[in-house]
Amino acid sequence: MFKSILIANRGEIAVRIIAACQEMGIRAIAVYSDADRAAAHVRAADAAIHIGRAPARESYLSIAAIIAAARATGAEAIHPGYGFLSENPDFADACQEAGIVFIGPPAAAMRLMASKTAAKRAVEAAGVPTVPGYSGEERDEALLMAEAERVGYPIMLKAAAGGGGKGMRAVNTPVEFAEALAAARREAMGAFGDDSIFIEKLVIAPRHIEFQILADAHGHVIHLGERECSIQRRHQKIIEESPSVALTPALRAEMGESAVRAARAAGYINAGTCEFLLDHDGRYYFLEMNTRLQVEHPVTESVTGLDLVRLQLAVAAGERLPVTQKQITQRGHAIEVRLYAEDPANGFLPSTGTVLVFDVPRAPGIRLDSGIAAGDEVSVHYDPMLAKLIISAPDRPAAVQRLGWALDRCAVLGIASNIPLLKAIAGEPDFQAGETTTAYIERHDLSAATPPAETPAGALLAAALWEAVGAAPVTTASGPFNPWSSSGPASATATRRFRYTRRGHEHTVALEPSAFGEGYAATVDGAPYPPDGAPVTGTPAPSGAFTVVAGECRETYHLARRGYDMLVSWHGESFTLAKPRPLTVEGTAQEAEIAAGRQSLVAPMAGTIIKVNVAVGDMVEARQALVVLGAMKMEHAISSPYPGRIVRVPHDAGDVVPGGEVLVELDTGAQSAELAGAGENGELDDVV
Questions:
Q1: What is the pLDDT, as a whole number, of residue 157?
Q2: Given the residues 16, 292, 402, 502, the one annotated as active site
Q3: 648 is catalytic
Q4: Collapsed DSSP state (helix, strand, coil) of residue 586
Q5: Domains in the chain, CATH or no CATH each
Q6: Fewer beta carbons under 10 A from the terminal one: N or C of the chain?
Q7: 591 CB contacts (<8 Å, ≥6 apart)?
Q8: pLDDT tens digits for range 522-539
């Protein structure tokens, strides 16, 4: 077995691999970019080495930098995790040339499976069912259109060189074909440097079923059962589970054997995944093979009891698989949800910044694979996934119930998260019944993912109590005449009032020291809380948790301060409570500018400016794209919400800006008085 392994990745998967290495007595070496000097995976490793600047192409995607780091640290092998260089055959070749073991499949297998068309031909020859379509070498538009007619509409256009939803277009009629083909080619070229497109029959609302494969260098290939990954948004998985309720034992065995044949056809070694589409009639079709460890591998580990990373290391070290196909059994049920730094209530915009609170319940049947902790920074440069929450239970109903319980007790503050969306899905009847397809998100009303308009009285009370007991000292401009500064604690007998604003509504909480001893008599917006007037108390914990006791009722909240705002998490929902700001010269000047017709369009998130479309003096129309902002592998267009004249453009393409930074100042003339505040951040459109 290896003595030292370099992990060429970051985030939760790097932490996961580091833990497996350390459990086996292997020295785990992390790599990090400028943005990750203090990241969780760096803190967890036995050693760490710097590999470049924050952009991934200059660090985590630099083959030369990774190989140099392995040589400098004496690493015997490299584990690529997933993403970045994990499916890059040139990286596997570079490892071999450097005398370093690549913990993954042979480069030839990766190259074969990286081409959707070549992979399809290879598995077809092995007797694996594939979706009807055209994957020939001829790519003339007229020929492709004729093939689409032969296959029959609706069809799906796909990029031959990649996946992840890039270069994919559904085409329902011949009229749409030419435009869809041009768009798919442009997107494929931009994402993969190859505009080759192939055609498949569009399978309407299938289930997405994948089989975990393991193969050693001695000719043994087995599967570890299936995972269902049907719930997706923009072709990206959100929830994965095992086993699938859609498979009978006979169908499971048949699909598993097809996955094994596909792996053998590729000459595969190490861990991989064969993905299939399953239609309503029980017919399945090979989709693709992922030549790496999958994000969702923990659900397979949960139901089989096997450690996939340990098995990867053993196979890479030349060992035989320690189990046979007959020894693989599935026990119980497991569900994985991905926690992302994105805002479901705001078009799923990525969210960056400092994580002030990150607290997930610890209990039997709950596993957390995380790459962040409270105090860590979520960077604009990388994927927005924060962690994976994995639930296991004796059966699916129990797993779903446990999932809802756990999500209700997750708290993330400082950045937005998709926890409300996951909660909405966990409570939705079709999901609970296992009625899930790849069209699930589009076909279900998940408005419960939007935070409630009304602010819970308990959240307001918790914020006030948290401040009252000294957990959130006010840090403002100093000076004896500043009404927002405090020279010492309030009188023990004085009533304290706290004012908060959320969604345009002002709220007041009053805390009067209880006449009966400990705690306060509280009112929220003038009404006693609790209604019977019982005293209330609050107790903070280091995790950010805060227990409020109101009479006989106990509730746990999580709180943090960001600037002047109070952030409160309760039952998986987050509430931002704005506090009064002290007057400043700058703020007064900005109000005067707005009144005069000058508006600022600001960055809704931290990011890199990709393109600036306007210059000072330009006249612009409503909904005209002014600036394109890149953040977390996506591009967003900042559009003007109304006509006007550009008066300032403070940044150029290539500049990295924080959230809230002014991107464009616009003179709207007389319209400004009525429009001020209605669109001050501009309109935001995804750039496809």
A1: 94
A2: 292
A3: no
A4: helix
A5: 4-103 (3.40.50.20), 105-131+205-331 (3.30.470.20), 134-201 (3.30.1490.20), 332-450 (3.30.470.20), 457-471+496-577 (no CATH), 585-686 (2.40.50.100)
A6: C
A7: none
A8: 999 999 999 999 999 999
